[in-house]
């Protein structure tokens, strides 16, 4: 059954599973998927200003007609709207303002619930972006803001600046996360847990690589665990992302009802600790420095009982 958690350190209720609209190409194709997601209790739909040349946002606008306020509408900006215009991309104030107006027009709404930076723009000072996002919030056109595909230090610095200067902080982080790509466990996921950010995990099935049809140790482990639990490999893969951290919301990219139906089954899968450990052991992953080093020397540095100290790390 679909549950709900708070978005970051806000009071906004968001469903356990988010629905991605990147593959929505027509209202006819997308409506059965969206209706089934809504029927299951899902309330977050995520798109971007440039997906399908704007078609994704237009389709989402159609789907939300007559029920806009019941959903958490999430979209993103950064990617170029016009490859021939140097200022039609990036996270600077001009592109933010024009992208926001474009999204509102394409979605046929006067506000966004959640507005994401789509990717870190190394050429725009983060303080310019945060101030511009805060202005969008103060205008009423945006309620909450988030960041996608950026280094942990950038996100941490941005939220520290927001805290000091009274700006709207990031409430969410959108990043790739699955058993074949666990990179965020090094810096991004611990940061999100510590700062109280919700994590929208895109590609939880590794673009189909964890659907159970491929080969390799991870896929074989998925099949074994799925068979034991009476689930599908895809359901186990999605359930693992939520089992690993309570801040993670898998972002489902289903384009057909049959795919979505299978994905929703992940909500009924409870992974035993042994199964989680077996799945992670099958994945070739290491924290690297400094994570592995700190874990290795912890006793020598912090004493014999260091592993019995409960962490103050916070999660929403």
UniProtKB/TrEMBL annotation:
What does the UniProt keyword field contain? Answer: Oxidoreductase
Keyword set includes Oxidoreductase: yes
Which protein, by its recorded name, is this? Predicted oxidoreductase
Natural source organism: Actinokineospora alba
| InterPro entries xrefs | AKR_Detox_Biosynth, NAD(P)_OxRdtase_dom_sf, NADP_OxRdtase_dom
Entry superkingdom: Bacteria
Q: Which residues cross the membrane?
A: none
Which lineage?
Bacteria, Bacillati, Actinomycetota, Actinomycetes, Pseudonocardiales
Q: Which residues form the NADP-dependent oxidoreductase domain?
A: 17-282
Gene Ontology molecular function terms on file:
oxidoreductase activity
Q: Which GO terms describe its cellular component?
A: cytosol
Q: Please give the CDD domains that the UniProt record associates with this protein.
A: AKR_AKR9A_9B
